[in-house]
Specification:
By secondary structure, the protein is of the alpha/beta class. It is built from ten helices and eight strands. An eight-stranded mixed β-sheet has the order 1-2-4-3-5-6-7-8, with helices on both faces. It is globular. The relative contact order is 0.15.
Length: 315
């Protein structure tokens, strides 16, 4: 079974002004003369972390990672204005042009798979292939699974805790109720809502949940993550109705891809990965039998590292 490559520090970091409001944090790691790959983090709003550099052989790949608008080290942290899927797609192109990269491999998991697909469909000529994990297609049915009547059937005790602060009326629209709290002018209200939101998702993210309370120094990022997720979810991820991402797969459909999916992924159930694979004949779907959603579960890590190694022979 493959494991992560050794810990790796970026050889370059920089900030890129993408609008009058937003400035994003960008990192490059691995081989400066290597084959380029762009990493899309999840959330939306989660930001990048050191583990993300370690899915790639540093002797071969030139790994480009960035904190999406409002996330991680990008500023302003937690900002919702000028923060849509298509702003992030445009930012990705700005990074590519800034670095002088002609084409690159796209790698993303969870929300990162959504953004990678949106980018590939908008700029198919810039993508050599895709490695995707835990597929999320930005559909209302997927949001309803998590926040209406799916996960609550599997985690009833956690659900009751999650909605315990909501009124009976608010329980009829949980995402909207939390969104109102997360954009509240009261910092205490935002903090309480963010911690509850993130705990609910974390409990469902692994085959065996081990949620830990956030570290004090990470509270601002915890709040930013929840705010941005709710912002995207109440806006249907800024996608057109009717399965926009599935409908437009043909735009990059000849590009090769690997889809890695945990069989027991409770956050992004396997049906979305299966539907994407059926719409994309050039893809290979690997369902990991004993795994949930998180990229650092052993079976998921193994499949992702093998996928990056497989693409070395295609590059």
């Amino acid at each position: 079974m493959r494991t992560l490559f050794p810990e790796l520090e970026p050889y370059r970091t920089f900030r890129l002004r993408v609008s009058a409001l937003h400035e994003i944090h960008v990192e490059e790691a691995g081989n400066p003369r290597g084959v380029p790959v762009i990493f899309f983090h999840g959330g939306p709003g989660a930001g990048i972390s050191p583990i993300h550099r370690r899915f790639f052989d540093p002797a071969f790949w030139r790994v480009v990672l960035f904190d999406q608008r409002g996330s991680g080290k990008s500023t302003p942290l937690g900002e919702l204005s000028e923060n849509t899927t298509w702003d992030l797609v445009a930012d990705t192109e700005r990074i590519r042009e800034h670095l002088g990269i002609e084409r690159w491999l796209a790698f993303g998991g969870s929300w990162g798979s959504t953004l990678a697909l949106a980018y590939a469909e908008t700029h198919p000529e810039r993508v050599t292939g895709l490695i995707l994990r835990g597929i999320f297609l930005g559909r209302r049915s997927e949001i309803d699974w998590t926040f209406v009547d799916g996960l609550r059937r599997l985690y009833p005790e956690a659900w009751d805790e999650f909605v315990s602060t909501l009124s009976q009326r608010e329980k009829g629209g949980v995402v909207y109720a939390y969104h109102r709290r997360l954009i509240s002018a009261d910092p205490a209200v935002r903090r309480e809502a963010a911690l509850a939101w993130n705990l609910w998702e974390e409990r469902a993210s692994r085959l065996v949940a081990k949620p830990e309370p956030p570290k004090t120094e990470d509270l601002d990022r915890e709040i930013a993550l929840a705010r941005i997720e709710a912002h995207y979810f109440v806006n249907d991820s800024f996608l057109q109705p009717g399965d926009q991402l599935l409908r437009n797969v043909e735009r990059f459909g000849s590009s090769p891809g690997v889809i890695v999916q945990g069989r027991y992924d409770m956050v992004c159930p396997a049906v979305s990965a299966w539907e994407l694979h059926r719409a994309w004949p050039a893809s290979r779907l690997e369902i990991v039998p004993a795994a949930g959603h998180a990229a650092d579960e052993p079976g998921i890590t193994d499949a992702l590292v093998r996928a990056t190694e497989e693409f070395k022979t295609r590059a």
